[in-house]
Amino acid sequence: MTDSQDSNEVVRRARDYYDSADADTFYYRVWGGEDIHIGLYESNEDGDIFAASRRSVAAMAEKLAPRGRGLRVLDIGAGYGGSGRYLAKALGHHVTCLNLSRVQNERNREITNAQGLGDLVDVIDGNFEELPFDDSSFEIVFCQDSILHSGNRFRVFEEVDRVLTPGGEFLFSDPMQEPEADPEKLRPVLERIHLASMGSIDEYRDYASRLGWSEIEIDERPGQLVHHYGAVLRNLEARTGELAGSISEEYLANMKRGLRHWIDAASAGLLDWGFLHFRKAGRPS
Description:
The chain is of the alpha/beta class and about 280 residues long. Helices cover about 45% and strands about 20% of the residues. The protein contains 11 helices and 9 strands.
């Protein structure tokens, strides 16, 4: 498994994709609105993507609660900023949302201002492999389901380490592959995200060890992948007629096919997902 590809090309491809009108419409109207990540579902029958997605944010915020209120938090790969606004409202944190999609960032700014949170939430155009911040700028770095889009995952960890204060924490979720997963069986999923591999818990633990971090918690919940991608696919299929004038037929067909690949891989036990929580060495500031 490799963790490094041509980062400039990977970043450009991801930015172009998420800036497209088709992707913006799909993710905002179908995937989860303010929250475009994997949700936590309460049963096999639960198909409420929006509520499940917000449940994931709340579960992660609860893991940060012991650190107190009013911290400097960096949310990398922040999407439309739903998580950042939640952390600002629920815990009083000052959140900087960093995201490479200018289209998503503009929507984030509009929603943030409409909710009166402009004094607590900043939105920055940027790439998490080259964080535009000084060393030791944040007590917390937060990320939901974005690292898989990186062509150099260790570089992301190095940048997180650099901008964290001593004793700072990195809390993230990510769709991952099982370490022994057959690459050929994963190929349909990997082709969908234009990468040679995905991360794994073993890989991320190794990165943390190389940086001298300690492990706080690994909270695995792989079954949620099947629930989430299944719910998104059902929602998309039910609303295809409604969306026909807003999203191209080619995009809709490709998305349905891609979602089925994710469901098949997760159902076959090739994928993992969960919350990973690490602490940088040093005394918390």
